[in-house]
Structure formats: C-alpha cells, structure tokens
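Chain entry —
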Amino acid sequence: MADPRIRVGVDVGSASHHVGIACPEGNILEEFDISHDQEGFGDFFDRIERQRETLGLPVSVAMESYNGHVRPLDQMVLDREYPLYNVNNLKLARFREMFPGAAKNDPLDTRNILKMSYLNDQLLIARGVLQLVPNVPEENKKLKRLSRRRRHLVDEKVRVENRLKSDLSAVCPELSSITCSVDNLWFLRFISSRKDLMKLAGMRQDSLLSIPGVGKRYAGAIQEWQKQAKFSAEVTYVGPMIIADAKRLLEIREQVADLDKAMEPIAEKSDLARLTGSIPGFGKTTSTVLAGEIGTMDRFDSEASLAL
C-alpha cells in the first residue's frame, strides 16, 4: 500500500531546478522549473501548498544536490517541517543502469527521484537511495560553514606559501635562506615592509627592529644577507608578486585567527563539539570541524555507519 503523502522530487542545478510533484500512487501531478532565487523558491512552495490543500495530505521532498546549489532551498524545506530526503547519487546511478531509459536529463532525473520515493520502502534495489536529512542544531550548522571557510583559507595559504617560496628561490635564494620557513610572521612582515623588494637590502638596523617580531637575532641575520644581497633580473616584475603574496599570507593568518575566535563560543554551545573535544588527542579545531561535518548523530544508524 502506498504511503499516503505527496512526493516532491527536485533535480538541483546551478541556476535553476527541475521539480516534479506526484500523488501517493506515484503519478505526476505537475512538473516545472524554478529559478534559484527568492521568486523561484516562492513559486516552489506555493505549488506544493496548493497540492497539499487540494489533496489534504502531508508532503515529503527528495532532492538531488549539485555542488552547493541545494542551499538555501534545503533549509527552507526543513523550516517548513517537510521531511527532506537526500538522493544518494551512486545508488541512483545503479538504478539507472538496471532500468535504462532515455539519455540523462533534468526531467528524467526528477521522475527517477519520484519513482525512488515511491519504491523506497517496497523494492530492495530502491532502498537507501533516499536518505532522511535530520534537522541539525543551529550551532553545528554555523560550525560547518565557518570550519569549511577555514579549510579553504588553509588550502589557499599552502598554495600561496609554495608560490612565494618558488618565486623567492628564483629572484633571491639567499633571502629565503635566512628563515626556516617563509611563513614565519617576522619574515612576512619584513618582506612586505617595502614596496620595492630590492630596497630590503638597504634597510637600517633601527628600521629592522621596528618591524614586529624582528628582534636583534633576526635583524642580525638580515644584515648578514644584506652584505651579499643580489637579485635576478626578474625582480622588476616578480618582486611585486612576492610582496603581494607575503601580504596575502599575513591576511590569511589573520582571517584564520578570526574564524578560530568566532568558532570558540559556538563550539562551547555544541554538545557534539564538547563530546569530540573530550576525546584525548582531539584539539579545538578538530572537534569543531567534526561537529560541523557530522551535524547530528541522528544521521547514522550505528557506529559503523559513522566510520564509513
């Protein structure tokens, strides 16, 4: 017997989404496209509500996401208290292989999603294609967005650091040799203290000591380099790139520190972050990242599910 509810299937795209609404028996009531904006979202919910009022039945929504474009529609669905299901793309692909049809397109995918929603509890091959999306505590949603932003910045930092190291090696290898890491704060501040890279070779001791982090030890290392400072011909156009990268690394470090500071009070409110933080060896960053990515333990049927 069919589950008495209206089923909504959404194939998510970057600029628009294809939507199908089906009755409990699986027959499609209407099919349409919506734009990825507030007007499109309004049309989406207006159509669903009209069908809900006409049939007098509850609603469930299944969405096949595309990169991050499922946001913010997924949260809006949860806010309406419609059960929301995420489509497991790998299992949906297996279903397509077993029941081949026309070439892949948005309307076909939407109908497949609706078909899976109807067959999910009735056909073995369909089970697991749809996964219920639980409501995640607000603090863990915030941690997810902030920790992912942090990870992107850290990834960028590695790329910029490698580029800076390579450019310094080409323009003035002796300059990079005065530090064990080009990412050292004092070194980045020194590199970015002048608009012209070659002018670093003529900086006086009092100017060096005025740079935060450059004490007598590092000022002495810089002065030793200044005695033999040489630059390749590339310095005229690569020098500004080196200075720009040094400034960007300083910015990234500051932005990461700001994110860490912003996440700390949020993590204190998160039961999951406190739980993972109590595990020996798990620091603040790891526990906040895990809390954000896991969201809620309600997503998992067992410990094995979490491990996978």
Remarks:
- Strands lie at 6-12, 16-22, 28-35, 59-64, 84-87, 130-132.
- The first strand starts at residue 6 and ends at 12.
